[in-house]
Each structure stands twice: as structure tokens, then as C-alpha cells.
């Protein structure tokens, strides 16, 4: 089983696992399972712990969603970057759990994970090799030592050219995660469309002329300059303008079905 952790989900007994054991299993690097399958198993486990809930989340009340959240409290606390907001989003099989997701997105879109920092690394080179030339991506960043999650949406493609991407449809955002909930959300639309996106060989997913920047001293070095300074977008998404570190980041491509 240790060599094939995904095999445990073929057994009905996985729903009897303690929550912490389930989370440890799901966080294994050798778990050969798509993101969407992970969410389906998490939902199945949660339903097994709450026999009063129906199997169709569409019929759930606010109290029902709260019951499910409480059952999965350790899961949400251990991986907040992957669990934006409440089960209202992930029961709809939306892999980007954000406040911008709609309840019927599963019928129209696929959210494909392109990069995860803790899995793929934190270098500009790895970002560009996995994410370049793929339109419509959304990035989530977990700030180290705080309860902040930052991110942005790029309707165009990322590339290595030393230039700015021009668009009126990009935006950046931030949330604060506390006690199992995401609060104090900020959504900032682009105002300087000529500098909406920041491309370059030494940059990760970067927005504006400083609004959300991930930069490395070279392509193969980890990001060493990460900061937010409000210039090209309507609102600042972080109070402090000094550099900070990150625990993880993820980039998803949004694909219309």
C-alpha cells in the first residue's frame, strides 16, 4: 500500500480513516491521482462521516455545508491554498476554489493544474517550461508566515520575452485565511492596461509594473524578489510593500469544455 497509496481509494474502507491519516495520504508526492479525483474522494469521505447529509450537494442548506466544513476542518487548515472558501465550490468539482467560481462551472470549464511550487520547484525556468503559451491561467500564492493568499488571472499567455502584456481583462486578488475561513477579500482590476502583465525569463507569474511580482536573479534560481507595490492595478492587495517569502504557489489553466 505504501508503494501505491492511490490503491487505498479503491477500497470502501478508506472512509473509515481518521481525518489526519486521510490528509497525510492525499499530500503524498507519489499519489497518482488527478486533482478532480482527490476532491471526489474527499467529498465521499465527508459524506461517510455525516450520514444525515444527502449525496447530492445541490440540495444542501447553509447548515449542511457548515457540517461538512467542520468535518474537514483539519483538511482545510493543512492545505488552504487548495481549498479556497467553502465546500460550496469543491463539491462542484471546481479545482480553483475561489470567490470567482460559479456553482455550475463544472459543466462548462476544466481547471487544469499546470504547476505546484512544492512539487515542481520555485524557479522562473520551471514556471515558463510548464506554463508558457497557455492562455487563461490563474495563479494562487501562499505567503510564508502569514494567513495571506495572493493571486491573479491572466487571460493571455505567459512568455519569456522581455516585455509587458497588454489586456483590460486581467485582475489580481488577495484573501486572508483564519479559523478555516477566507476573509477580507480584495479584487483589483487592471487600470494600466499597457503594463497588465510582466513577462521575462527571470520572472514568474507577475502582474503590473510591481503590483504582484515573482522574480529570480536568473532563470534557474529560486525567486528571491517577491513583492506587491500598487502601480498598474486599481487597488493594492497587500499593505506592506517590502519583499516576502512564499510557502507554495500554483498555476491553473481554465479550459472551456
Quaternary state reads single chain
* Strand fraction: 15-25%
Radius of gyration: 19 Å
Low-confidence residue ranges: 83-107
Largest sheet: 6 strands, antiparallel
What strand order characterises the main sheet? Answer: 1-11-2-3-5-6
The SSE order reads HHHHHHEHHEEEEEEEEEE
SS-derived structural category:
alpha+beta
The helix fraction, in percent, is 10-25%
Terminal Cα separation, in Å? 35 Å
Instruction: Please give the number of β-strands.
Output: 11
| Number of helices, where a helix is a run of at least 4 consecutive DSSP H or I residues | 8
Could you say how many structural domains there are in total?
A: 2
**Overall pLDDT metric:** 80
- Overall shape: it is globular
Describe this structure in words.
This protein has 2 domains: 99 residues, no CATH class; 144 residues, no CATH class. Helices cover 23% and strands 24% of the residues. The protein is built from 8 helices and 11 strands. It has 257 residues and is α+β, with helices and mostly antiparallel strands.
Key features of this structure:
globular, three-stranded antiparallel sheet, 8 helices, six-stranded antiparallel sheet, 257 residues, alpha+beta, 2 domains, 24% strand, 23% helix, single chain
Amino acid at each position: 500500500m505504501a508503494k501505491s497509496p492511490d490503491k487505498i481509494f479503491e477500497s470502501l474502507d478508506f472512509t473509515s480513516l481518521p481525518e489526519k491519516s486521510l490528509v497525510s495520504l492525499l499530500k503524498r508526492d507519489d499519489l497518482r491521482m488527478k486533482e478532480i479525483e482527490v476532491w471526489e474522494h474527499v467529498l465521499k469521505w465527508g459524506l461517510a462521516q455525516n450520514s444525515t447529509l444527502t449525496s447530492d450537494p445541490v440540495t444542501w442548506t447553509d447548515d449542511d455545508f457548515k457540517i461538512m466544513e467542520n468535518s474537514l476542518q483539519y483538511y482545510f487548515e493543512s492545505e488552504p491554498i487548495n481549498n479556497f472558501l467553502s465546500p460550496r465550490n469543491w463539491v462542484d468539482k471546481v479545482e480553483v476554489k475561489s470567490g470567482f467560481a460559479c456553482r455550475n462551472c463544472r459543466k462548462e470549464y476544466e481547471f487544469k493544474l499546470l504547476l505546484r511550487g512544492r512539487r515542481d520547484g520555485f524557479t522562473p525556468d520551471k514556471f515558463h517550461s510548464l506554463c508558457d503559451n497557455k492562455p487563461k491561467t490563474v495563479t494562487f500564492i501562499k505567503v510564508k508566515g502569514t494567513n495571506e493568499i495572493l493571486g491573479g488571472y491572466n487571460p493571455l499567455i505567459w512568455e519569456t520575452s522581455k516585455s509587458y502584456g497588454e489586456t483590460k481583462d486581467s485582475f489580481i486578488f488577495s484573501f486572508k485565511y483564519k479559523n478555516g475561513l477566507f476573509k477580507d477579500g480584495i479584487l483589483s482590476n487592471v487600470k494600466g492596461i499597457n503594463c497588465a502583465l510582466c513577462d521575462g525569463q527571470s520572472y514568474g507569474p507577475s502582474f503590473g509594473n510591481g503590483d504582484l511580482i515573482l522574480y529570480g536573479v536568473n532563470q534557474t534560481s529560486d525567486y528571491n524578489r517577491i513583492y506587491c507595490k500598487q502601480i498598474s492595478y486599481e487597488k493594492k492587495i497587500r499593505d506592506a510593500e517590502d519583499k516576502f517569502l512564499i510557502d507554495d504557489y500554483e498555476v491553473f489553466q481554465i479550459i472551456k469544455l
